Amino acid sequence: MDKLIHDDKGTVTISNDGATIMKLLDIVHPAAKILADIAKSQDSEVGDGTTTVVLLAAEFLREAKPFIEDGVHSQNLIRSYRTACSLAIEKIKDLAVSIEGKSLEEKKSLLAKCASTTLSSKLIGGEKEFFAPMVVDAVISIGNEDRLNMIGIKKVPGGTMRDSFLVNGVAFKKTFSYAGFEQQPKKFLNPKILLLNVELELKSEKENAEIRLSDPAQYQSIVDAEWNIIYDKLDKCVSSGAKVVLSRLAIGDLATQYFADRDIFCAGRVAEEDLKRVAAATGGTVQTSVNNIIDEVLGTCEIFEERQVGNERFNIFNGCPSGQTATIVLRGGADQFIEEAERSLHDAIMIVRRALKNSTVVAGGGAIDMEISRYLRQHARTIAGKSQLFINSYAKALEVIPRQLCDNAGFDATDVLNKLRQKHALPSGEGAPYGVDIATGGIADSFANFVWEPAVVKINAINAATEAACLILSVDETIKNPKSESAQGDAAASAMGRGRGGGFRGRGRGMRR
């Protein structure tokens, strides 16, 4: 299910991404802040599984609550939880399947399966067959580049989700243009691209300079000087042989006209990140002066065109030599919808990158969680002492994932969980990959159905959730420092504090429930 968050400024966000929701919430309670932080860290580290982390941490705490109320010392619980956590992670590593050493085609289809698992819970889940291959192509095209900003996502309202497309290079909105722009050619094959950080405009003298003339004819030469300067700049741009000139600063009307006469395309005021992306894609470098432009600093691409997308014109550079960038142009009805689609794709992109780097995957759909839960229960029986109970409760907490999946899909959770427990308890171990089947409301072999997720996601989630739970368990007292009215009150308070043994209000064991 999605959440609609509406803040004081009146902005409405519809999201399914745990981290986005946690960021937007105004959380005051200190223990709850910890949960928001682990969601953020999961988002930046792995990109997906943000909801999983928060769910698990909350569930661990819920399982621990009755023990704490019965007077169990929290250190005992923490010790057991840590043990259980390391056992769980070892088990994940055992169960993980590597996708190394496969051919590119095989790898692509495997990664697309991972991407569609991530997308299935999102708003654009209905179109996951369409988006998953697109995400995989985008990630593979940036290769080993770590910088995520090499994948641009441009949002254009209008059309349907299916009108979205992937550009193997760079695309950006047509910038503000002057007269003469329409006479410029809009399509080139293998053009040279010149990237500038220079203004190509007439500049009048800024400083108040005083010039004394003895002859009125000399005045003309001063006016001409400005024109000569700009024509000189433009000549150098043209003689460099570039057919597409992009600049971060303005390209004025004179320059636009001049380029149009010479069949050159120009765009001024290109956003900085777009310019950087073009530089990376085409192999050009951004120049801060037009003097001495050599071939090495010019970029190139197979095809440049300007084309209409919705009611916007887009400049599109396709088939770039270094191929280290990709741009996804998203279409859709409402703005909020496109925003959410962008967040979902970000999750999918992160997952595919992770799966490419750490090429091990586990069965999704709650299968891995049930399997670890079973393993821990079995392990707990071999332990004498209280920690048997604690590890059991940890195992029980892990079942929250499949349970939540059932609830979200509208099935009877108890029923499905019982089937899963029975399947996972089979001595032969063939039930290990079984998880919730969202399509039919029963259980199914997640591995065979290609519901996969990178092992890193699960390992990170369990680690972070256990740490957060232990952190909150290890606190036994919350102390609040009452703020004083003013500096004078400060002094009085400290004097009073000395009088009555510290001006702190303490609270007993455990946080306020």
Describe what you observe in this structure.
- It is a single chain.
- The protein is of the alpha+beta class.
- It folds into three domains: 3-99 and 363-474, GroEL-like equatorial domain (GROEL, domain 1); 104-168 and 327-358, TCP-1-like chaperonin intermediate domain (GROEL, domain 2, 2-Layer Sandwich); 171-207 and 220-322, GroEL (3-Layer(bba) Sandwich), CATH 3.50.7.
- It is built from 16 helices and 19 strands.
- The protein has helices at residues 18-24, 30-45, 50-69, 74-95, 104-119, 128-141, 217-239, 253-261, 272-282, 335-357, 367-380, 387-398, 400-409, 413-424, 455-473, 487-499; strands at residues 3-6, 12-15, 97-98, 151-157, 165-167, 169-173, 187-189, 192-196, 244-247, 265-267, 286-287, 299-300, 303-309, 312-318, 326-332, 360-363, 434-436, 443-445, 452-454.
- Strands 8, 9, 10, 11 and 12 form a five-stranded mixed sheet that branches.
- Helix 4 (74-95) crosses helix 12 and helix 5 packs across helix 6.
- The relative contact order is 0.16.
Can you name the CATH architecture of the largest domain? Orthogonal Bundle
Give the biggest beta sheet.
5 strands, mixed
Helix count, per DSSP? 16
How many E-type strands? Answer: 19
As a whole number of angstroms, the C-alpha radius of gyration is 31 Å
Low-pLDDT regions: 499-508
Instruction: Please write the CATH class name of the largest domain.
Output: Mainly Alpha
Distance, first to last CA = 27 Å
Shape: elongated
Average pLDDT, to the nearest integer?
Answer: 81
Number of domains: 3
Helicity range? 40-55%
Percent of residues in beta strands: 15-25%
Multimer state: single chain
Spell out the CATH superfamily of the largest domain: GroEL-like equatorial domain
The CATH topology of the largest domain is given as GROEL, domain 1
Structural class: alpha+beta
InterPro entries: Chap_CCT_eta, Chaperone_TCP-1, Chaperonin_TCP-1_CS, Cpn60/GroEL/TCP-1, GroEL-like_apical_dom_sf, GROEL-like_equatorial_sf, TCP-1-like_intermed_sf, TCP-1_chaperonin
Subcellular location: Cytoplasm
GO cellular component, one term: chaperonin-containing T-complex
Protein name: T-complex protein 1 subunit eta
